Protein backbone atom coordinates (compact mmCIF):
# COMPACT_ATOMS: atom_id res chain seq x y z
CA UNK A 1 0.00 0.00 0.00
CA UNK A 2 1.38 3.44 -0.85
CA UNK A 3 1.52 6.21 1.74
CA UNK A 4 2.90 9.73 1.73
CA UNK A 5 4.40 12.03 4.33
CA UNK A 6 4.69 15.73 3.67
CA UNK A 7 7.68 17.52 5.09
CA UNK A 8 7.82 21.24 5.38
CA UNK A 9 11.10 22.96 6.22
CA UNK A 10 12.02 26.65 6.09
CA UNK A 11 13.32 26.24 2.55
CA UNK A 12 11.27 23.48 0.94
CA UNK A 13 8.05 21.52 1.12
CA UNK A 14 8.15 18.03 -0.36
CA UNK A 15 6.53 14.66 -0.31
CA UNK A 16 8.11 11.40 0.79
CA UNK A 17 6.35 8.55 -1.01
CA UNK A 18 6.33 4.99 0.31
CA UNK A 19 5.43 1.89 -1.67
CA UNK A 20 6.18 0.24 -4.99
CA UNK A 21 7.78 2.78 -7.32
CA UNK A 22 5.09 3.91 -9.77
CA UNK A 23 5.33 6.16 -12.80
CA UNK A 24 7.34 9.31 -12.10
CA UNK A 25 5.61 12.39 -13.49
CA UNK A 26 8.46 14.71 -14.36
CA UNK A 27 6.72 16.94 -16.92
CA UNK A 28 7.47 20.08 -14.91
CA UNK A 29 11.23 19.65 -15.52
CA UNK A 30 13.01 20.60 -18.76
CA UNK A 31 15.70 17.88 -18.54
CA UNK A 32 16.30 14.89 -16.29
CA UNK A 33 19.71 13.55 -15.25
CA UNK A 34 19.60 10.24 -13.40
CA UNK A 35 22.78 9.44 -11.48
CA UNK A 36 23.53 6.02 -10.02
CA UNK A 37 26.51 3.67 -9.73
CA UNK A 38 27.43 0.52 -11.64
CA UNK A 39 26.20 -1.83 -8.89
CA UNK A 40 22.78 -0.27 -8.37
CA UNK A 41 22.47 0.51 -12.07
CA UNK A 42 23.12 -3.12 -12.98
CA UNK A 43 20.43 -4.30 -10.60
CA UNK A 44 17.70 -1.66 -10.80
CA UNK A 45 18.20 0.84 -13.62
CA UNK A 46 15.92 -0.94 -16.12
CA UNK A 47 13.01 -0.98 -13.67
CA UNK A 48 13.47 2.66 -12.71
CA UNK A 49 13.87 3.75 -16.35
CA UNK A 50 10.61 2.00 -17.22
CA UNK A 51 8.87 4.34 -14.73
CA UNK A 52 10.22 7.58 -16.16
CA UNK A 53 8.76 9.13 -19.26
CA UNK A 54 10.63 12.21 -20.33
CA UNK A 55 11.96 13.13 -23.76
CA UNK A 56 15.22 14.48 -22.36
CA UNK A 57 16.61 11.90 -19.96
CA UNK A 58 20.34 11.25 -19.49
CA UNK A 59 22.03 8.65 -17.32
CA UNK A 60 25.36 8.95 -15.51
CA UNK A 61 26.90 5.83 -14.00
CA UNK A 62 29.50 6.43 -11.27
CA UNK A 63 32.02 4.08 -9.69
CA UNK A 64 30.75 2.48 -6.49
CA UNK A 65 32.10 3.21 -3.03
CA UNK A 66 32.53 5.74 -0.24
CA UNK A 67 36.03 6.49 -1.55
CA UNK A 68 34.41 8.08 -4.61
CA UNK A 69 32.33 10.54 -2.57
CA UNK A 70 34.86 13.24 -3.36
CA UNK A 71 35.66 16.34 -5.43
CA UNK A 72 36.65 14.27 -8.49
CA UNK A 73 33.24 12.59 -8.70
CA UNK A 74 31.47 15.86 -7.91
CA UNK A 75 33.23 17.47 -10.86
CA UNK A 76 32.28 14.51 -13.05
CA UNK A 77 28.60 15.09 -12.27
CA UNK A 78 28.84 18.84 -12.83
CA UNK A 79 30.74 18.42 -16.11
CA UNK A 80 28.23 15.85 -17.35
CA UNK A 81 25.33 18.18 -16.47
CA UNK A 82 27.02 21.04 -18.35
CA UNK A 83 27.69 18.80 -21.32
CA UNK A 84 23.99 17.81 -21.39
CA UNK A 85 23.06 21.49 -20.99
CA UNK A 86 20.90 21.05 -17.92
CA UNK A 87 19.24 24.37 -17.12
CA UNK A 88 17.71 25.76 -13.95
CA UNK A 89 14.42 23.96 -14.65
CA UNK A 90 16.19 20.59 -14.81
CA UNK A 91 16.23 17.88 -12.16
CA UNK A 92 18.83 15.35 -11.01
CA UNK A 93 17.69 11.97 -9.70
CA UNK A 94 19.85 10.14 -7.16
CA UNK A 95 19.32 6.37 -7.43
CA UNK A 96 21.37 4.51 -4.83
CA UNK A 97 22.57 4.51 -1.24
CA UNK A 98 23.71 7.38 0.95
CA UNK A 99 26.87 7.94 -1.08
CA UNK A 100 24.84 8.68 -4.21
CA UNK A 101 22.19 10.79 -2.46
CA UNK A 102 24.83 12.86 -0.64
CA UNK A 103 26.90 13.63 -3.73
CA UNK A 104 24.03 14.12 -6.17
CA UNK A 105 22.25 16.30 -3.62
CA UNK A 106 25.40 18.40 -3.34
CA UNK A 107 25.98 18.59 -7.11
CA UNK A 108 22.37 19.69 -7.69
CA UNK A 109 22.69 22.23 -4.86
CA UNK A 110 25.61 24.03 -6.49
CA UNK A 111 24.81 23.49 -10.18
CA UNK A 112 23.72 26.88 -11.53
CA UNK A 113 23.29 27.96 -7.87
CA UNK A 114 20.89 25.12 -7.19
CA UNK A 115 18.49 22.95 -9.17
CA UNK A 116 15.99 20.34 -8.03
CA UNK A 117 16.86 16.78 -7.11
CA UNK A 118 14.85 13.67 -6.34
CA UNK A 119 15.99 10.82 -4.11
CA UNK A 120 15.26 7.17 -4.84
CA UNK A 121 17.16 5.49 -1.99
CA UNK A 122 18.10 1.83 -2.44
CA UNK A 123 19.81 0.97 0.87
CA UNK A 124 18.05 0.73 4.23
CA UNK A 125 20.35 3.39 5.65
CA UNK A 126 19.51 5.80 2.84
CA UNK A 127 15.78 5.05 3.11
CA UNK A 128 15.57 5.76 6.83
CA UNK A 129 18.16 8.51 7.08
CA UNK A 130 20.30 9.87 4.23
CA UNK A 131 17.55 10.49 1.65
CA UNK A 132 15.51 12.76 3.91
CA UNK A 133 16.50 16.05 5.48
CA UNK A 134 18.76 17.68 2.91
CA UNK A 135 22.23 17.08 4.33
CA UNK A 136 24.40 16.71 1.25
CA UNK A 137 28.14 16.65 0.78
CA UNK A 138 31.41 14.91 0.07
CA UNK A 139 34.46 13.69 1.95
CA UNK A 140 37.93 15.27 1.80
CA UNK A 141 41.32 13.97 2.89
CA UNK A 142 40.64 15.75 6.22
CA UNK A 143 37.56 13.70 6.98
CA UNK A 144 34.01 12.69 6.12
CA UNK A 145 31.24 15.06 5.01
CA UNK A 146 33.37 18.14 5.63
CA UNK A 147 32.21 19.95 2.50
CA UNK A 148 28.56 20.24 1.58
CA UNK A 149 25.34 22.12 2.02
CA UNK A 150 21.80 21.81 3.22
CA UNK A 151 19.76 21.27 0.05
CA UNK A 152 16.39 19.57 0.40
CA UNK A 153 15.20 17.12 -2.26
CA UNK A 154 12.03 17.97 -4.17
CA UNK A 155 10.65 14.47 -3.63
CA UNK A 156 11.71 11.13 -2.15
CA UNK A 157 10.48 7.68 -3.29
CA UNK A 158 11.00 4.90 -0.76
CA UNK A 159 10.36 1.41 -2.12
CA UNK A 160 11.56 -1.32 0.24
CA UNK A 161 11.56 -3.81 -2.67
CA UNK A 162 14.94 -2.36 -3.66
CA UNK A 163 16.30 -3.85 -0.44
CA UNK A 164 15.81 -7.41 -1.69
CA UNK A 165 19.15 -7.23 -3.49
CA UNK A 166 20.98 -5.49 -0.66
CA UNK A 167 23.76 -7.57 0.99
CA UNK A 168 22.71 -8.67 4.51
CA UNK A 169 25.55 -6.79 6.20
CA UNK A 170 24.43 -3.52 4.55
CA UNK A 171 20.84 -4.21 5.59
CA UNK A 172 21.81 -4.81 9.23
CA UNK A 173 23.92 -1.66 9.21
CA UNK A 174 20.79 0.34 8.29
CA UNK A 175 18.95 -1.15 11.28
CA UNK A 176 21.33 0.74 13.60
CA UNK A 177 19.91 4.05 12.33
CA UNK A 178 16.34 2.80 12.96
CA UNK A 179 17.23 1.87 16.54
CA UNK A 180 19.00 5.23 16.95
CA UNK A 181 15.93 7.22 16.03
CA UNK A 182 13.62 5.13 18.23
CA UNK A 183 15.84 5.52 21.31
CA UNK A 184 16.07 9.27 20.78
CA UNK A 185 12.52 10.15 19.91
CA UNK A 186 9.89 7.47 20.50
CA UNK A 187 9.55 4.98 23.35
CA UNK A 188 6.57 3.16 21.76
CA UNK A 189 8.46 2.72 18.51
CA UNK A 190 11.36 1.28 20.50
CA UNK A 191 8.96 -1.20 22.18
CA UNK A 192 7.59 -2.13 18.72
CA UNK A 193 11.15 -2.81 17.51
CA UNK A 194 11.70 -5.11 20.49
CA UNK A 195 8.68 -7.19 19.46
CA UNK A 196 8.97 -7.17 15.68
CA UNK A 197 11.30 -8.81 13.19
CA UNK A 198 12.75 -6.38 10.67
CA UNK A 199 13.48 -9.23 8.29
CA UNK A 200 9.70 -9.55 7.91
CA UNK A 201 8.62 -7.24 5.02
CA UNK A 202 5.52 -5.87 6.80
CA UNK A 203 7.42 -5.04 9.98
CA UNK A 204 10.19 -3.53 7.91
CA UNK A 205 7.80 -1.26 6.02
CA UNK A 206 6.25 -0.05 9.28
CA UNK A 207 9.68 0.61 10.78
CA UNK A 208 10.94 2.47 7.70
CA UNK A 209 7.84 4.69 7.59
CA UNK A 210 7.97 5.40 11.31
CA UNK A 211 11.68 6.23 11.21
CA UNK A 212 11.17 8.62 8.30
CA UNK A 213 8.13 10.22 9.94
CA UNK A 214 10.18 10.85 13.09
CA UNK A 215 13.12 12.22 11.12
CA UNK A 216 10.83 14.45 9.02
CA UNK A 217 9.37 15.93 12.20
CA UNK A 218 12.81 16.68 13.60
CA UNK A 219 14.05 18.21 10.32
CA UNK A 220 10.90 20.35 10.00
CA UNK A 221 11.62 21.80 13.45
CA UNK A 222 15.34 22.29 12.96
CA UNK A 223 16.51 22.08 9.36
CA UNK A 224 20.02 23.47 9.92
CA UNK A 225 20.83 21.49 13.08
CA UNK A 226 20.80 24.31 15.56
CA UNK A 227 19.01 22.29 18.22
CA UNK A 228 16.88 19.14 18.24
CA UNK A 229 18.31 17.76 14.96
CA UNK A 230 21.63 17.17 16.71
CA UNK A 231 19.77 14.31 18.44
CA UNK A 232 20.07 12.38 15.17
CA UNK A 233 23.80 12.17 15.88
CA UNK A 234 23.33 9.82 18.86
CA UNK A 235 26.15 7.26 18.71
CA UNK A 236 27.90 9.25 15.98
CA UNK A 237 30.44 11.19 18.11
CA UNK A 238 31.98 7.90 19.28
CA UNK A 239 31.15 6.13 16.00
CA UNK A 240 32.98 8.68 13.85
CA UNK A 241 36.17 8.19 15.87
CA UNK A 242 35.84 4.42 15.41
CA UNK A 243 35.45 4.92 11.65
CA UNK A 244 38.43 7.28 11.60
CA UNK A 245 40.66 4.91 13.62
CA UNK A 246 39.79 1.99 11.35
CA UNK A 247 40.22 4.16 8.22
CA UNK A 248 36.60 3.67 7.11
CA UNK A 249 37.53 0.14 6.01
CA UNK A 250 36.72 -2.25 8.83
CA UNK A 251 33.17 -1.23 9.73
CA UNK A 252 30.12 -0.01 7.85
CA UNK A 253 28.68 3.29 9.05
CA UNK A 254 25.76 1.69 10.91
CA UNK A 255 28.08 -0.80 12.63
CA UNK A 256 30.26 2.06 13.88
CA UNK A 257 27.14 3.97 15.01
CA UNK A 258 25.95 0.89 16.93
CA UNK A 259 29.29 0.64 18.75
CA UNK A 260 29.09 4.38 19.36
CA UNK A 261 25.61 3.94 20.85
CA UNK A 262 26.98 1.38 23.32
CA UNK A 263 29.68 3.85 24.40
CA UNK A 264 27.26 6.78 24.60
CA UNK A 265 24.98 4.62 26.75
CA UNK A 266 27.72 3.94 29.29
CA UNK A 267 28.26 7.71 29.52
CA UNK A 268 24.50 8.30 29.80
CA UNK A 269 24.32 5.70 32.60
CA UNK A 270 27.20 7.32 34.49
CA UNK A 271 25.54 10.72 34.05
CA UNK A 272 22.31 9.34 35.55
CA UNK A 273 20.36 9.71 32.29
CA UNK A 274 19.86 6.00 31.59
CA UNK A 275 19.07 3.26 34.09
CA UNK A 276 20.92 -0.05 34.00
CA UNK A 277 17.72 -1.69 32.75
CA UNK A 278 17.27 0.83 29.92
CA UNK A 279 20.91 0.44 28.93
CA UNK A 280 20.44 -3.34 28.80
CA UNK A 281 17.27 -3.07 26.70
CA UNK A 282 19.10 -1.05 24.04
CA UNK A 283 22.00 -3.52 24.16
CA UNK A 284 19.59 -6.45 23.72
CA UNK A 285 17.88 -4.86 20.72
CA UNK A 286 21.24 -4.21 19.02
CA UNK A 287 22.29 -7.76 19.95
CA UNK A 288 19.19 -9.22 18.24
CA UNK A 289 20.56 -7.98 14.92
CA UNK A 290 24.22 -8.78 15.66
CA UNK A 291 24.96 -5.09 16.15
CA UNK A 292 26.24 -5.25 19.74
CA UNK A 293 29.82 -5.30 18.50
CA UNK A 294 32.72 -4.56 20.81
CA UNK A 295 35.32 -1.99 19.84
CA UNK A 296 38.56 -2.16 21.73
CA UNK A 297 40.13 1.26 22.20
CA UNK A 298 43.90 0.97 21.98
CA UNK A 299 44.82 4.44 23.23
CA UNK A 300 42.10 6.29 25.15
CA UNK A 301 43.88 9.68 25.07
CA UNK A 302 44.25 9.54 21.26
CA UNK A 303 40.61 8.45 20.96
CA UNK A 304 39.57 11.41 23.14
CA UNK A 305 41.59 13.90 21.08
CA UNK A 306 39.81 12.77 17.91
CA UNK A 307 36.46 13.95 19.35
CA UNK A 308 37.64 17.49 18.58
CA UNK A 309 37.37 16.79 14.83
CA UNK A 310 33.60 16.32 15.24
CA UNK A 311 31.43 18.92 13.46
CA UNK A 312 29.45 19.38 16.71
CA UNK A 313 32.56 20.58 18.53
CA UNK A 314 32.42 24.35 18.89
CA UNK A 315 34.92 26.59 20.68
CA UNK A 316 36.79 23.43 21.71
CA UNK A 317 33.70 22.27 23.64
CA UNK A 318 32.65 18.67 23.11
CA UNK A 319 28.97 17.94 22.59
CA UNK A 320 27.63 14.50 23.45
CA UNK A 321 24.20 13.35 22.30
CA UNK A 322 22.90 11.12 25.07
CA UNK A 323 19.62 9.28 25.59
CA UNK A 324 17.59 10.64 28.47
CA UNK A 325 15.66 7.47 29.20
CA UNK A 326 14.33 5.67 26.11
CA UNK A 327 12.46 8.06 23.80
CA UNK A 328 14.24 11.28 24.75
CA UNK A 329 17.57 12.75 23.94
CA UNK A 330 19.77 15.41 25.45
CA UNK A 331 22.80 17.31 24.20
CA UNK A 332 25.43 17.51 26.94
CA UNK A 333 28.33 19.94 26.59
CA UNK A 334 29.66 20.14 30.12
CA UNK A 335 30.87 16.61 30.84
CA UNK A 336 34.24 16.49 32.58
CA UNK A 337 37.14 14.90 30.73
CA UNK A 338 37.67 12.47 33.67
CA UNK A 339 34.17 11.07 33.20
CA UNK A 340 34.67 10.61 29.48
CA UNK A 341 38.05 8.93 30.06
CA UNK A 342 36.37 6.61 32.58
CA UNK A 343 33.93 5.52 29.85
CA UNK A 344 36.67 5.09 27.24
CA UNK A 345 38.62 3.05 29.82
CA UNK A 346 35.76 0.53 29.94
CA UNK A 347 36.33 -0.17 26.24
CA UNK A 348 40.12 -0.40 26.34
P1 LIG B 1 26.43 3.21 0.02
O1 LIG B 1 25.71 4.26 -0.68
O2 LIG B 1 27.89 3.09 -0.20
O3 LIG B 1 25.75 1.80 -0.31
C1 LIG B 1 26.29 0.64 0.25
C2 LIG B 1 26.59 -0.43 -0.83
O4 LIG B 1 25.36 -1.01 -1.25
C3 LIG B 1 27.23 0.13 -2.08
O5 LIG B 1 28.17 -0.80 -2.55
C4 LIG B 1 26.06 0.27 -3.05
O6 LIG B 1 26.45 0.24 -4.40
C5 LIG B 1 25.26 -0.95 -2.68
N1 LIG B 1 23.83 -0.88 -2.96
C6 LIG B 1 23.00 0.18 -2.85
N2 LIG B 1 21.74 -0.20 -3.05
C7 LIG B 1 21.76 -1.52 -3.33
C8 LIG B 1 20.77 -2.48 -3.60
N3 LIG B 1 19.47 -2.17 -3.59
N4 LIG B 1 21.16 -3.74 -3.83
C9 LIG B 1 22.48 -4.10 -3.79
N5 LIG B 1 23.46 -3.24 -3.50
C10 LIG B 1 23.10 -1.97 -3.27
O7 LIG B 1 26.23 3.30 1.61
P2 LIG B 1 24.97 3.70 2.53
O8 LIG B 1 25.14 2.93 3.76
O9 LIG B 1 23.70 3.66 1.81
O10 LIG B 1 25.26 5.23 2.84
C11 LIG B 1 26.41 5.65 3.53
C12 LIG B 1 26.65 7.10 3.18
O11 LIG B 1 25.53 7.85 3.55
C13 LIG B 1 27.84 7.69 3.88
O12 LIG B 1 28.59 8.44 2.96
C14 LIG B 1 27.22 8.61 4.94
O13 LIG B 1 28.04 9.71 5.22
C15 LIG B 1 25.95 9.01 4.25
N6 LIG B 1 24.87 9.40 5.16
C16 LIG B 1 24.25 10.58 4.94
C17 LIG B 1 23.21 10.98 5.75
C18 LIG B 1 22.50 12.26 5.48
O14 LIG B 1 21.65 12.64 6.28
N7 LIG B 1 22.80 12.92 4.40
C19 LIG B 1 22.79 10.15 6.80
C20 LIG B 1 23.43 8.95 7.00
C21 LIG B 1 24.49 8.58 6.17
N1 LIG C 1 21.84 11.84 9.65
C1 LIG C 1 21.72 12.92 10.55
C2 LIG C 1 20.91 14.04 10.04
O1 LIG C 1 20.31 13.97 8.98
O2 LIG C 1 20.82 15.05 10.70
What would the keywords be for this entry?
Rossmann fold, alpha/beta, Dehydroquinate synthase-like, alpha domain, 348 residues, binds glycine, two-stranded antiparallel ribbon, 12 helices, binds nicotinamide-adenine-dinucleotide
How many domains? The number is: 2
Helices and strands, in order, run as: EEEHEHEHEHEEEHHHHHHHEEH
| Distance N to C terminus | 48 Å
CATH architecture name of the largest domain: Up-down Bundle
- How large is the radius of gyration? 20 Å
Strand order of the largest sheet: 1-2-9-6-5-3-4
Helix fraction by DSSP (H/I, runs of at least 4): 40-55%
CATH homologous superfamily descriptor of the largest domain: Dehydroquinate synthase-like - alpha domain
Give me the secondary-structure category: alpha/beta
Provide the CATH topology of the largest domain. Answer: Dehydroquinate synthase-like, alpha domain
The fraction of residues assigned to DSSP E strands is 15-25%
Question: Your description of this structure?
Answer:
The protein has 348 residues and is an alpha/beta fold. It folds into two domains: 3-165, Rossmann fold (3-Layer(aba) Sandwich); 168-345, Up-down Bundle (Dehydroquinate synthase-like, alpha domain), CATH 1.20.1090. It is built from twelve helices and eleven strands. It has helices at residues 38-49, 71-83, 98-110, 124-130, 168-185, 187-195, 201-221, 236-245, 253-270, 276-288, 300-306, 337-346, and strands spanning 3-8, 13-18, 32-37, 57-62, 91-96, 116-121, 135-140, 143-150, 155-158, 320-323, 329-332. The strands form three sheets. It has a seven-stranded mixed β-sheet with strand order 1-2-9-6-5-3-4, with helices on both faces. A two-stranded antiparallel ribbon has the order 7-8. The protein has a two-stranded antiparallel ribbon with strand order 10-11. A hairpin with a 5-residue loop joins β10 and β11. α4 packs parallel to α7 (201-221) and α5 packs across α7. The longest helix has 21 residues, at 201-221. The radius of gyration is 20 Å and the shape is globular. It binds nicotinamide-adenine-dinucleotide (NAD) and glycine. Residues 129, 133, 135, 229, 232 line the site of glycine.
Amino acid sequence: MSTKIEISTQTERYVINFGILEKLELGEYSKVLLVTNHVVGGLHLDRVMSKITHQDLSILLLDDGEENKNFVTLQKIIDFALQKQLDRKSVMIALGGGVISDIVGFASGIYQRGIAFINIPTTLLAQVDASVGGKTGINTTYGKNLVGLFHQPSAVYIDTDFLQTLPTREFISGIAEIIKIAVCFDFEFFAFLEKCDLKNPQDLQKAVQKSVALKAKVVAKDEKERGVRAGLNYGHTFGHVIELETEYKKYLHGEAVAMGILMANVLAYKEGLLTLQEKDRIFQLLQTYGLALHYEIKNTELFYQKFFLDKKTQNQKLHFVLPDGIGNVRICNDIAKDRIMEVLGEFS
